[in-house]
Structure formats: structure tokens, C-alpha cells
Amino acid sequence: MPRTSLDQLNAFVAVAQHGSFSQAARVLRKDRATLHSQVGDLEIDWGVTLFDRSGRSPSLTAEGHSLLSQARHILYQLNALENACDAIAQGHEHELTVHHDMSIPCEMIRSLDAQVRDAFPHTQLNWLHRSREESAAALLRKEADLAVMLTAGQVVPTEGLSFTNLGYPRFAFFAYKDAPLAQQQSVSLADLERHRQYLAENFADILKTPLAMSAQTVRVSNTDVLLALLKNGGYALLPYHLLDAEPYRDQYRPLPLDFMVQDGRVGYVLLSLSRSGGPAKAFLQQRIEEAFRTMC
């Protein structure tokens, strides 16, 4: 059994922090004699003198200094445990797992993560890049709570899942700012055929339409890798919102195609398990919807 009570630890830390039994007693709303007794009993139980009482005010001994941080840590952990218990009692989720498409900007994820952590500090968030099929299966197995995915218009979800149409952001063919294609005033289909094209794997799999304009096509599954490869030349179909975010802003240019009057648009959906979730999930859903309203 522990030889120490939480009241004793609180008394020790409070006296050390305020440098006075009287001030510590006022903060803890206890009488001075009680704190004297609790600290004295703690010193007896530990066999250590925590305070030098020879002066007008108690001062920590070397031993007291060495033990203070550990005492504070124990009290901090207890407070965190009690807050976590309160969150569970109020129905706050312990953990949320979000699957997302590779085209979701990192800055959007960072902002969403910060908002949820600020509102629900005891809810752990996991962000996993997965395909639409993997996400749907994980949702049904209750291994994920939400999924933000591309859609080509087939918005009827798998049975058991609900969806929210998040909108249709603009997509275009982009090249790195210093690449030859980016210097042209007009880009023809013949120009595209002569340059290497990078195909984002998720776009090709979701859209189910011929996206290859070039005889030199390279499939890439990672956004950062694809954008790095574009610095060597070539082009790729990408969403504006991805390249308008840091650290890519002003680094890539949409190609002025002479055979397209308008940019293309591709939809996003928010998938979730029907009739499930608590306040943190509902809060995150609202923030995702707000982020897409701004983006679209």
C-alpha cells in the first residue's frame, strides 16, 4: 500500500509553490495546522526532510527539490485521469479514426485536428490515408469513424453507411512553374501527348475514365512524391485546393489548355457508419463540412 495520500502530496506541492504554509492553506482552503500536519506526516512516512523551517518561511531542502517534480507529475496525471473519466461520462469518444483521400491538403487536416483537440482534449484522433474501398470496409468493421473520399457521381453508399455530399472542387492539369509546359501561352492536346504525364492513383481508380493524355504515363500513389516528380517536368491532373495550400502555393501552374473552356470538377463525400458516434464525431463532421464549403 502507498505510504502517501493525495492530500499530503497536494500540501507538499502547495507549500513549495507558495513558500508559505499560510498562503498554501488559503489556496487549498484548509487551516494552517492541517497543512503542517500533512507535510510533517509525509516527511515521517518518507524518512526525508522536505522543508527547512529555521527561517521565517519554509524553504525546500535539496531532498525536497529532488522530489517536487515527481510529486507534481503524479498530481498532473491524476488530474488528467479524472478529466478523461469526466469526458467518458459525458459521452465524449476516447478515439476517432478518420480515413482520407490523398488529395486532402495537409493544412486542412492540421486545422481540423487542432479544432477537435481544442474542443475535446481527451479524444485521440487518427488520420489514415486509405482508398475508398478500404475506407468503406473499415467503417463497416467499426475500425474507422469517418472517411473523406473522392466520388465520380456514384453517391449511393454501401449499405449501412451514410454520406454527405461535400461539393465539387475544381481540378486541372498542372505543371511545375519552371517546367517547359508551364511557360507556354497555350497548351494543345498534341503538347500533352509529347510530355510525361503523372497519374494520381486514386483519381484514376475513382473516376473510371481514360485520363491518360500521353504515351508516357507514370502512376503515383503519394501526393508528395507526385509533386516532387513534377519538378523534373511533365504534368498531372490535380485539385486546385491541394496546390493552393502550403507548402505548394505558387509552385505549380494550371496549364492553359486550348481544348477545354472550363476546369473539370470532381466530387467529395463524407462517409460514416449510420446512426453512430458521439459529440466529438459530430463536431468533426461539422468542421469538415465547413472546410469544404470554403474550399468549393
TrEMBL record:
Q: Does the keyword Glycosyltransferase apply?
A: no
Please state every residue range assigned to the domain named HTH lysR-type: 4-61
Which terms are listed as keywords in the entry? Answer: DNA-binding, Transcription, Transcription regulation
GO molecular function, one example? transcription cis-regulatory region binding
Per its UniProt record, what PANTHER family does this chain match?
HTH-TYPE TRANSCRIPTIONAL REGULATOR, LYSR FAMILY TRANSCRIPTIONAL REGULATOR
Q: Family assignment?
A: Belongs to the LysR transcriptional regulatory family.
Name of the protein:
DNA-binding transcriptional regulator, LysR family
